[in-house]
Structures are given as C-alpha cells and as structure tokens.
Amino acid sequence: MPARILLVDDEDEVLDAWETSLKPLKHRILKAHNKEEALAAAAEHPFDLVLVDYLIPSTTGVEIVAAIRKRLPLVRSVLISGRFDENISRAELRDMVREKVEVDEYLHKPAKPKLLRETVSRLLAGGSLDWKDVAKKAQGARDISDSDTKLVDGKLAQHLSKKK
Known about the structure:
By secondary structure, this protein is an alpha/beta fold.
C-alpha cells in the first residue's frame, strides 16, 4: 500500500523536484506552499511522512512539523534547508530539532534524488510501534509548545548561512 507524503515548500520548482525524485517510490504525494495549506491537508489526510523546507515566509518548517504532529503524532518528518552552514553536520542539526519537536531527519538542500528516496524509504520502513510507544508519541506531540518551537528555531537560526 503506498504511503501518503506531504511536501511543503513555498517554491513550486522545489516541490516539483521533490515530487519527481520521489515518484519512483510510487507513493501518494500532495504539495503545500505554506503552513495553512499544510495544516488543511493534514486535517483531510492521514499522512505517513511530511517533507518540509525550514524557511517558509511567515513561519518555519519546525512550526509546521509541530502543528502537524499535534494532529498526526506518528507522522514521520524530514526538515530540509539550503540555508544552514554546511560545516554543521546533518546529525547535529537533526539532534537540535529532535530535542523538542522530534523531526526524524535533516537534509541539506539541494538533496540529491537518491538520498531523498533513501531517507524517505528508511523512515517509512521504520516498523510498527507497540501501544506504549504510540501513547508516548501522542502525548509528546500534544506537549509541544510554541516556546519549544521558538527554542529550536533559535538554535537553528544560529547556524543559518548568509547565502540566499
């Protein structure tokens, strides 16, 4: 059964590139350009994974993931950005975000299609959880506060590069 994937970026070219990269996996893909579209889509569809750009006008990918997790606590997530200093590792960025918001993976933009497919496949193949894990994830998602997302965004902002 194909997974449902939500792609979130304010640029159509990026959304199209991500969709093209993921097409060989044969999952159902929906695209959103902003937080409002992403939340409306999450209200209508039970997504298995959300792939979101970090910097989107008037919000951040961290805020979007936190809001979606409140509705879909088991959704897997990938945060992606081309604005972070490439001297900081993907693991360091992922750990900063996981601390409060539980983003599963971080990728530098532009992500190579093969890496994007491998990351999505690995996250979707993560296996099933027992009921205690489900309850813990659901409670954790409900407990994410605006101050948690602002704390994570503050840590991440320190690593933004000057490039556009």
